[in-house]
Amino acid sequence: MRIIGNIEHPHLKISVFRSDNRISIKFENALYEQTYKLGLDERFATMEAIQKLVDDIFLEQVSGQFQLMHRAKTAACARLFPPNDKLELEHII
């Protein structure tokens, strides 16, 4: 797999890769990453075509998925480490 380009974005790192049988678009923020794989198709043969695919609506949906990922991780951590409702203080006589 090799990098064929990047797509500029103010908050995400967007990398485009090509392997023998597919194109992959990887989106990364500070904590999470998502990868979308496309079959080799002449419609996605150029970086310009891939940049058109990654439009505002696509980016909005990617952002929504990052939010869902964060909520899932936060909920899992809360189940594993439930908040301690009872604050244990020293008994002072």
Describe this structure in words.
There is one protein chain. The protein has helices at residues 47-53, 56-80; strands at 2-7, 13-18, 22-28, 33-39. It has one domain. The protein has a four-stranded antiparallel beta sheet with strand order 1-2-3-4, with helices on one face. The protein has two helices and four strands. The longest helix has 25 residues, at 56-80. It is elongated and about 80 Å long. The protein has 93 residues and is an alpha+beta fold.
Task: Set down the secondary structure blueprint.
Blueprint: E1 2-7, E2 13-18, E3 22-28, E4 33-39, H1 47-53, H2 56-80
Antiparallel strand pairs: 1-2, 2-3, 3-4
List keywords for this structure.
93 residues, alpha+beta, four-stranded antiparallel β-sheet, 2 helices
Strand arrangement across the biggest beta sheet: 1-2-3-4
**Low-confidence sequence ranges:** none
Q: Report the span from N to C terminus.
A: 68 Å
Number of strands: 4
- Tally of distinct domains: 1
Mean pLDDT across residues: 92
- What assembly state would you assign to the polypeptide chains in this entry? single chain
- Overall helicity: 25-40%
Put simply, the count of helices is 2
Strand-pairing-aware structural class: alpha+beta
- Please outline the major beta sheet: 4 strands, antiparallel
Estimated radius of gyration? 21 Å
**Overall spatial form:** elongated
How much of the sequence lies in strands comes to 25-35%
Order of helices and strands: EEEEHH
Summarize the structure.
By secondary structure, the chain is an alpha+beta fold. The protein has helices at 47-53, 56-80, and strands at residues 2-7, 13-18, 22-28, 33-39.
